[in-house]
Amino acid sequence: DAKTTQPTSMDCAEGRAANLPCNHSTISGNEYVYWYRQIHSQGPQYIIHGLKNNETNEMASLIITEDRKSSTLILPHATLRDTAVYYCIVRAPSGYSTLTFGKGTMLLVSP
Amino acid sequence: NAGVTQTPKFQVLKTGQSMTLQCAQDMNHNSMYWYRQDPGMGLRLIYYSASEGTTDKGEVPNGYNVSRLNKREFSLRLESAAPSQTSVYFCASRPGQSNYGYTFGSGTRLTVV
Q1: CB contact under 8 A, B104 and A43
Q2: For a 10 Å CB count at each end of chain A, is N or C smaller?
Q3: For residue B86, how far is the Cα from the chain centroid?
Q4: Where are the alpha helices (DSSP H) in chain A?
Q5: Longest CA–CA separation in chain A, Å
Q6: How does pLDDT run across A18-55, given as a tens digit for each residue?
Q7: Is the pLDDT confidence value at B44 over 60?
Q8: Do B41 and A49 touch (CB under 8 A)?
């Protein structure tokens, strides 16, 4: 799986959009970009994934650059409950390949 | 719909004791996984089961054994617990060969003294 690079931490004001970047310059053509988050003391939670098109669901939007070397997870209206560690993971969907979690980005949403 | 259920939620063991961590999912998923998470670190894969009847080692399998009892249940056993196995253990499942996301349990916090 391709390696990803994320900032260690970010801050966001409640109600504002949180934009979390991720670099994955060695991504292969068949690898998807996945985002998970982990709220303190809980198990990781799947957020969204994409291949090359931008994706949106009820939780977030995922913007992938045209060259696919980086992506941004957008939480449109961050709340205090969005404070968590966010993990960007790149993996191919074929076979039974597993997730490789790095250290992620600690997002702190403040009032 | 419970998702992935792990038991127990907390456990304290003495060095050398054995125990089994239980995991069950009710989503009819084919693949199941055991991860551990140490303070300040990401998750590391211990073992996984791609489908009922199969198991494979992950990144850190030493000191652990697993059993895929049936499609729903995947247990993790520590035969002789060591302080280095103090960690939070997460079980996860996913449908199988696909690009679906994983569903994780809420974790078992294990302390070995």
Answers
A1: yes
A2: C
A3: 14
A4: none
A5: 44
A6: 999 999 999 988 889 999 999 988 999 999 999 998 99
A7: yes
A8: no
Sheet holding A55-56, edge to edge: A18-23, A70-75, A61-64, A55-56
> How many Cβ atoms sit within 10 Å of the Cβ of residue B64?
19
Closest CA to B37 of B85, B3, B81, B73: B85
Among all chains, which residue has been given the structure tokens 């303190």?
Answer: A40
Residues B89-101: pLDDT tens digits? 999 998 876 667 8
Distance from CA of A42 to the nearest CA of B (A): 5
Q: Which of A46, A87, A95 sits opposite B97 (nearest CB)?
A: A95
Query: Tokens standing for A15?
Result: 């109600």
Q: Do B106 and A96 touch (CB under 8 A)?
A: no
